[in-house]
Amino acid sequence: MGNSFREIVEDCPVIATVKDVKSLEKSFESDSRIIFILFGDICNIASIIDRVKEQGRVAMVHLDLVSGFDGREIAVDYIRNMTRADGIISTKTAQVNRAKELGLYAVYRFFVLDSRSLENIRKQSAVTKPDCIEILPGIMPKIIARIVRAQRIPVIAGGMIDDKEDVMQALKAGAMAISTTKQELWFI
């Protein structure tokens, strides 16, 4: 894999997030070095990842959104042994831990709903030590700043980022990167 995940994210802070083949193909026109894959199934995920790797990009698979995986650790083993993915994204502690054990990059995704969510982020990320945490929605600059101050782990802001202003506010608040399905933002 070469560079650390942090170095790759720092180099290009807009992460193309794809949810279908059409957006996957469009992502290759962008400068994004990392592609978050939010679609596929157990039968086609390897070929989707191969397409990303053919373009020289870092392939990160959101295991919670791949049909046929049931949230267990064995899904991470499948990704490691049967595909060329660089890493995984998950909301599940066991999957993040397993990815780290297997030498894959791991992004731990959290939904920030209330102050209890903030405490959960602190506790879970301290235990799992993912490469990055991703917080959703990503349009909360004050909350992003609070999480960044409390973490030593890089923060990615994702979800509901609609325009350049949202991107700039998230980055200004301390997020290392943003992830978005908004294709026009891949080119800013």
Index terms:
alpha/beta, about 190 residues, single chain, globular, TIM Barrel, eight-stranded parallel beta barrel
Poorly predicted ranges (pLDDT <50, ≥5 residues)?
none
Number of helices: 8
* Beta-strand residue percentage: 15-25%
CATH architecture classification:
Alpha-Beta Barrel
At the third CATH level, what is the topology name? TIM Barrel
Q: Termini separation (Å)? A: 26 Å
Q: Tally of extended strands? A: 8
CATH H-level superfamily: Aldolase class I
The pLDDT mean sits at 96
**CATH class designation:** Alpha Beta
Q: What is the overall shape?
A: globular
User: Order of strands across the widest beta sheet?
Assistant: 1-2-3-4-5-6-7-8
Helix amount:
25-40%
Would you mind describing this structure in some detail?
- The protein is of the alpha/beta class and 188 residues long.
- It has one domain (5-182): Aldolase class I (TIM Barrel).
- The chain is 40% helix and 20% strand.
- It has eight helices and eight strands.
- It has helices spanning 5-11, 21-27, 45-54, 74-82, 93-101, 115-128, 141-150, 164-172, and strands at residues 14-18, 34-37, 58-62, 87-90, 105-111, 132-136, 155-158, 177-180.
- The chain is globular and about 40 Å long.
- It starts with a helix and ends in an 8-residue tail after the last strand.
- The model has no long low-confidence stretch (mean pLDDT 96).
